[in-house]
Amino acid sequence: MGEASLQPIGDLLSIQTDCRDPDRLAAFWGAVLGVGEDFRLGDPPHYIDLLPRAPGRPALCFQRVPEPKVVKNRLHFDLIVDDLDGATERVESLGGKRVPNGDHHDYSYTWRIMADPEENEFCLIQKSEAGR
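-> structure tokens emitted (132 positions)
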């Protein structure tokens, strides 16, 4: 690879999520990540952007589409947590759910597959004490 191939084409601005109800998913993910809403476009909203967790990080955004999710996500979010069961309870209290048989243990980590209110999968990840 030459130096020219290492030059960025652009900066990652946001992670866009197609959904049927941007209000519902923005509220869910805003609570999960502890961030507020940055802005919305349309009435009812067609786009809702959340604030990034820190300057320079990409924003999580939601875009209204007419079709429901029908297959497994090809891209998903991973959230590192200190207390897997506590994080699971909190996600469930916000309207998410635990995917049956969705716990995987490997390489000193536990991955727990969860789903948001529109069935988009994401993982809660906890590193085991032995692996710390």
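The mean pLDDT is 90.
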